[in-house]
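Q: Could you fold this chain for me?
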Amino acid sequence: MRTWFSDQVRERLGTFGLMMPSIAQCAVGAAVAWIVAIELLGHPRPFFAPISVLICVGVGLGQRLRRVAELVVGVSLGVGVGDLLVSWIGSGPWQIALVVALAMCAAVLLNSGALFVAQAGSSAVLVATLVPGEGSGGLDRMADALTGGVVGIAAVALLPASPFTIAAKHLSGVLDALSTVLERAADAIERRDVDLAAEALEEARGTQGAVEEYERALETSKEIALLSPLHWHRRARLARYETAAVPVDLAMRNARVLIRRTLAALGEASPPPKELAESLREVSEAALLLQLELGAGREPLLARQALLAVAASERPRRLGFSAHVIIAQLRSIVVDLLEATGMDHESATATLTSLDTPAA
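A: Sure. Below is the predicted structure, expressed as structure tokens.
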């Protein structure tokens, strides 16, 4: 219980440290957008400006540039429909229902994105309830939304989180999961433990979320590196994470198949030989090497050498069907990870020992 609590505290503190730059961007950007809209545009209560900053920057991972475009257009659509209808039919419960329905229907016809539709609807609500009688027109509110979007992008550029920290943290989670899955499979083969293999399979099935989080984190990292002058000169380092994205995803998918087949193999009359566990551990260690070298900003040469050694090794003889599948999946993982180190697919595949080669 105490260990679990300590792990949770460390995880929360790590997440807090990762999100602090985004929180600072939101806080500073909201204040700046309010000041700009009041002092430069002369708008008395520009509430759309700070709201735009919060939506554009957010505290999560995603495509901020696209969100800015969806925000500005969605707000403009909602404000336009809302102003037009409220000027005709006034404000009240049924008017709000009609304004929101028409604004969201128009948004769906233009773009079915959730943010776009939600912004059109929420903007129409504000126009129909809070805005009437305050003396600001639809164009002023659209200008406030645009101001907030521009300030939000400036906040990302001038108060940036480290794109490499974001990418490294999430890739580390994926490679840790891959390494753990392979290690568990190796233990299950060595111990002839079906229950352990079943636990490993259950764990492997939950790894896709980490892969998807890494993909979103990588998009955010690339966006920061594009927007922030502070990181322009270091884009080559981020390119290694981009190179690894698809191969690591494929490696994790192949690992899930490997675990399923491991579970099946342990129930066969001739289970996979224990020597196979060593190969699984070698690939597991190579995944950790890849994680460490990318995190240190180095070309992953040590990981590549470790993987090449596994690729050149020969398979055991007298294998059952499931064991053959395990080896095939392990070879696929080796190729995937070699590609993650920067090798092209043809070169990585060419490093594999022929399956027809007899074991020594």
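A (continued): Residues 163-350 form a domain with the Methane Monooxygenase Hydroxylase; Chain G, domain 1 fold (CATH 1.20.58).
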